[in-house]
């Protein structure tokens, strides 16, 4: 399902968007970023292109050799990190994505108040012939057991995603180009993915590659089985992948004991709120709300906090 962003940031997901995210496990937001924003992101990547690491070692490849997702068998996926810590101005367009006015309504709706960045962002690049990525994710383990790390629910109209991906499209993905693919509806599956299907060796008609343009955003639950197809286009594929979690959840651990110091310099209060470690909203967590630039707080009474300080030596138990 694709949704078009309007000129002014929406303050909430529409009912149509909610329906299709719940149905499919992903949602495309068309034109979420301006051409200038995309240009700034790509210019920053160009400046740091020599830092790209290609997965050529067999132990690092994301596909099984000689399977439909393996590409030409030589070119590997190209990864680049550290964007939030780059010197100015190159860090700025990536920092702005943490609390972007067009994106906050979706992040709050899909993750709840106090959403937080869980993984360090990753720039994914593919050149023509590059391998894709075997299917992964999903609410079940390979042997069909409950996977507590990757779950999706919608209860009384409220979403729960234990881990949500936000894929920022920095180049066009036309039909047949390859790149991100998804098994629609698999965030609700009750049986494990067949091993051959993991490598696209059977039933390829169930793999869906969304057509996207630079500036589009793809939100998908990590509980939705997904992967990537080999890259077939002449132009380079680029996406900036962020992963977010609810206020009290964590999958990654780069936040402990603290995010890299250079990443925290000269960021806004809203961006800093997204980089808080996991803890409950009621413990003075800064919250972002659509249409508001500054974080707000949902706090316990000062009397209760003072009492806890007497008991525990800290106003936060």
UniProtKB/TrEMBL annotation:
The name this protein goes by in its record: Phytanoyl-CoA dioxygenase family protein
Biased composition (Basic and acidic residues): 52-62
Record key words, sorted: Iron, Metal-binding
An MF annotation (GO) of this entry: metal ion binding
Protein source organism: Polarella glacialis (Dinoflagellate)
Region of interest (Disordered), residue spans: 52-76
Cofactor: Fe cation
UniProt-listed Pfam families: PhyH (PF05721)
Gene3D superfamilies (alphabetical): q2cbj1_9rhob like domain
SUPFAM superfamilies assigned: Clavaminate synthase-like
């Amino acid at each position: 399902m694709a949704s078009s962003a309007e000129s002014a940031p929406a303050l909430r997901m529409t009912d149509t968007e909610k329906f299709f995210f719940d149905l499919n496990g992903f949602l495309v937001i068309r034109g979420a970023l301006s051409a200038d924003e995309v240009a700034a992101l790509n210019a920053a990547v160009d400046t740091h292109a020599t830092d790209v690491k290609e997965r050529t070692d067999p132990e690092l490849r994301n596909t099984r050799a000689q399977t439909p997702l393996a590409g030409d068998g030589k070119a590997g996926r190209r990864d680049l990190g550290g964007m939030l810590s780059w010197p100015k101005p190159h860090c700025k367009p990536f920092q702005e994505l943490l609390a972007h006015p067009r994106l906050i309504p979706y992040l709050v709706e899909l993750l709840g108040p106090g959403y937080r960045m869980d993984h360090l962002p990753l720039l994914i690049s593919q050149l023509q012939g590059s391998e894709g990525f075997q299917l992964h994710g999903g609410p079940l383990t390979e042997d069909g057991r409950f996977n507590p790390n990757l779950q999706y629910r919608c209860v009384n109209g409220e979403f729960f995603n234990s881990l949500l991906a936000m894929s920022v499209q920095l180049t066009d993905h036309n039909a047949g180009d390859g790149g991100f693919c998804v098994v629609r509806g698999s965030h609700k599956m009750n049986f494990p993915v067949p091993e051959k299907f993991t490598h696209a060796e059977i039933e390829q008609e169930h793999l869906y590659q969304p057509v996207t343009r630079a500036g589009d955003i793809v939100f998908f639950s990590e509980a939705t089985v997904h992967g990537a197809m080999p890259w077939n286009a002449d132009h380079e594929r680029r996406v900036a992948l962020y992963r977010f979690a609810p206020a009290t959840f964590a999958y990654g651990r780069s936040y402990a004991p603290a995010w890299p110091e250079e990443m925290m310099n000269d960021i806004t209060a809203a961006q800093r709120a997204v980089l808080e470690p996991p803890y409950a909203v009621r413990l003075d967590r800064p919250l972002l709300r659509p249409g508001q630039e500054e974080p707000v707080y949902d706090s316990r009474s000062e009397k209760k906090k003072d009492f806890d300080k007497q008991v525990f030596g800290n106003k936060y138990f």
